[in-house]
Amino acid sequence: MAVPAHRIPALVVALLIVLAPWMLPVWIVTLLGYVGLYSIVCLGLVLLTGMVGITSFGQAAFVGLGAYVSALSIIHLGLSPWLTLPLSLAASGLAGALIGWLTIRLSGHYLVLGTMAWGLGLFYLFGNLQGLGGFNGLSGVPRLEAAGLSLVEPARFMLLVWALLAILLAGTTTLIDSRAGRAIRALRDPVMVESFGVQSASLKLKVFVAAALFAGLAGWLHAHYLGHVSPSPFGINASVDYLFMAVIGGTGSPAGAVLGPAVVESLRTLLRDAVPALQGVGGNYEAIVFGALVILLLQRASGGLAPYLSRWLPQRPPPRAPAAAQPLPTRKPPSAGSALLEVRGLGKRFGGLVALQGVDFNVPAGEIVALIGPNGAGKSTLFNLVTGVLPPSEGEVRLQGQRIDTLPPRAIAARGVARTFQHVRLRANMTCLENVAIGTWLRGRAGVMAGALALSREEDTQCLFEAQRQLDRVGLGALASAPAGSLALGQQRVLEIARALAADPSLLMLDEPAAGLRLREKQALATLLRELKSQGVTVLVVEHDMDFVMNLVDRMVVLQFGTKIAEGTPDVVRRDPRVIEAYLGGLDD
Predict the structure, then answer these.
(1) Three-state SS across 285-313?
(2) What's the CA dihedral at 447, 449, 452, 454 to 10 degrees?
(3) Confidence class of residue 281 from pLDDT cuts 50, 70 and 90?
(4) Read out DSSP for 523-573?
(5) Which of 355, 400, 418, 528 is deepest in the core (most CB within 10 A)?
(6) Residue 124 above 60 pLDDT?
(7) d(Cα 183, Cα 454) in Å, to the nearest integer?
C-alpha cells in the first residue's frame, strides 16, 4: 500500500528520531528530549492560541502543577511515579477547568492580563506554600523506570517523550479534521458559531482544559527526568518562552508545535557556545544575536515556520465529501401557510436612542418575506433581535407559537432558525466544504473526545456529505475544496446561504444578501431564492434594494426610523406614498 505523499515528511522525522541514539552524540539526543518536552506544551498552545485565539502567558504554571502533584504524591503517599500520572493530569485538568471558567469570560488585553495573573499567582504559590520546599524546591523525586530499565538515560527518555508527543500529535490532527475540530477553528467568530448552535464558551473551556492537560503531562515528565522540582522553571518567563516557540513554529498547525521548539532550542544551544568563543569574553551577546536572528526569521515567515516550509512540502489534501452517506436527521417542516414567525410590538433602545419601536409582522411558512427600508431604518437591528444576538427592550417574537426572544442564539438555532450576516462571516482559511459543514453542528452529537479518538468518523462523513449536497444545491459544488477567502463576494454570500441550509432550518434569514453584488450576481441570487421557495424553504430577507426584492418576494414589510410604515404585496407597497417618501424624499407639487 502506497504511503500518501503528505505523510512522508512525518515518517522521515519519526525514522530520524528512532535512529538518533545510534547516530548522534549524547548532547544532541538530550536536546531532542527537551525539544519533545517543550513541543507537548506548545501543542496545547496551538489549539488554545492558534485555533481558539486565547493568548496564554500561564502555561508554565500548569507544567509546574503536574510536576509538584507527582512529587508530593510520592513523598506523602508513597506512590510509584507511574501511579502519580493520573493525579498530575487530574490536578492540571481541574485547575484548567476552574481557571479557564474565569479566564475565557474576559476579552482583549484583559484576557492576556488574566492569564499572566494566574500564571504569576501559581508560581509564587509554588515558592511560598509550606510543604513545597520554598524556592529551593523538592529533591529526591524518583526517576522513571519500566521493566527494570531506567528511562532517564537520555536516549530512552527522548524516545519516551517523542512517543507520547506522536500520540498527542495524531489525536490533535484527527480532532482538527472532525466535527468538533471545525467548530474549534471557527471559535474566533463566536457570534457566527453561536448562530449555528455551538456553545462557544463550553467549547473554549474544553480546549483550555486540553492545553492544561498537555502541560501537566510535560510537568510529570519533567519531574521524573530531573529528580527535582523547584518553582524557577515554571515562572512567567517560561510561559513566554513556550508562547514564543509556538509563534516561531506557527500556531496554525500542529507541525508548528514541533518546529518552534526545535529551532529555538537549537539556536540557543549553538549560540551559547559559538558567540562567547568568537568574542573571547562572556556576556549576553548570544541573546542579542538570537533576537536578531528571530526578527529576520519572522520577517521572512510572519505566520511561522510551518506554513512557510509547507510551500516546498507535499500538501495534505483538503477533506472531501464521500460519494454516499447516511443522511443526517431532518426536522419536520411546518405546514404551508401556517404562522411560522410572529413579531409583536418589538422594540429596542440603546440608552436614549430608540432603534426600533412597536414593530409587528408575520412570516407564513412557505413564503419569501422582505424586510426593507432605507439605510438606518433598523432592519439589521430587528434581524439581530429575532436571532437572539440582541435582547429586545419590549415586545416578543414567537416561532411556531413558542416564544424565542428570551433565548440565546444557539437555542434559537436549535428551534430551526438559520441565518446569514450583513457582513460576510466565513473562515477564510477553511475550505468551502468545511465552512458549510459548520452549519450541520446541531444535526450531530460527537464532541471533542470522540473527535480526538477518531470515534466520530461516521458522523463526520455524514456532515461532509450534507455540506457537499448544499454546495451543489446553490451551485458551488465545484468549489468545495477552495479556501472560502479565495471566492468573490457574491460567491461568499451564496456560500453563507449554503451553510445556513446545512442546518436544515424551518426559517432561513438572510441579512442584506445582495449588498455589494453586481447586477448579474443579484439576478443569480434571486433565481436561487426562487428555487429554494419552490423546495419549501421559508425565507425572511432583510434588504434595502427594492429593485432586488420587488419581483422576488410574496410580501414586504417596510421600516423607517425604527417603525413600520407599510406592509403588503410588492404592488401595494410600491404605490404606498409613505414608502415613496421614505425612498425618494417626497415629490414637489
Answers:
(1) HHHHHHHHHHHHHHHHCCCCHHHHHHHHC
(2) -80
(3) low
(4) HHHHHHHHHHHHTT-EEEEEES-HHHHHTT-SEEEEEETTEEEEEE-HHHH
(5) 418
(6) yes
(7) 16
User: Rounded to whole angstroms, how far apart are CA atoms 34 and 51?
Assistant: 25
- C-alpha to C-alpha distance for 392 and 409, rounded to whole angstroms: 13
- Measured distance CA(226)–CA(34) in Å, rounded: 11
Residue 152: strand, helix, or coil: coil
Q: Within 13 A of 574's CA, how many CA atoms are on the CB side? A: 10
Among candidate residues 397, 341, 354, the one with its CA nearest the CA of residue 562: 354
CB 556 within 8 A of CB 570: yes
CB 114 within 8 A of CB 102: yes
The secondary structure of residue 141, as a DSSP letter, is: P
Spatial separation of the C-alpha atoms in residues 13 and 39, rounded to whole Å: 14
d(CA 309, CA 295): 17
Q: Say if residues 64 and 233 touch (Cβ distance below 8 Å).
A: yes
Question: 363 exposed, middle or buried (CB, 10 Å; 0-12, 13-18, 19+)?
Answer: buried
Task: Give backbone dihedrals phi and psi of 566, rounded to 5 degrees, phi first.
Answer: -165, 155
Query: On the CB side of 357, how many CA atoms lie within 13 Å of its CA?
Result: 11
Angstrom distance (rounded) from CA 348 to CA 390: 9
**Calpha distance 126→120 (Å, rounded):** 10
Distance CA 272, CA 566 (A): 77
How many Å apart are CA 484 and CA 436, to the nearest integer? 10
Query: What is the residue-wise DSSP string for 96-132?
Result: HHHHHHHHTT--HHHHHHHHHHHHHHHHHHHHHSTTT
Q: Which three cell numbers stand for residue 118?
A: 494566574
- Pairing of β 368-372 and β 538-543: parallel
Q: Exposed, middle or buried by CB within 10 Å (0-12, 13-18, 19+), for 77?
A: exposed
Cα 283 to Cα 280: distance, rounded to the nearest angstrom:
10
Q: Cell digits for 265?
A: 532550542
How does the average pLDDT of the chain come out, rounded? 89
pLDDT tens-digit series, residues 288-309 = 777 787 788 777 777 888 888 8
Q: Rounded to an integer, what distance in angstroms lies between the CA atom of residue 320 and that of residue 301?
A: 29
Q: What percent of the chain has pLDDT over 70?
A: 96
Q: Is the pTM of this model over 0.85?
A: yes
Which residue, 329, 333, 332, 331, is CA-closest to 462?
Answer: 329
Q: Is 59 helix (H, G, I), strand (E, B) or coil?
A: helix
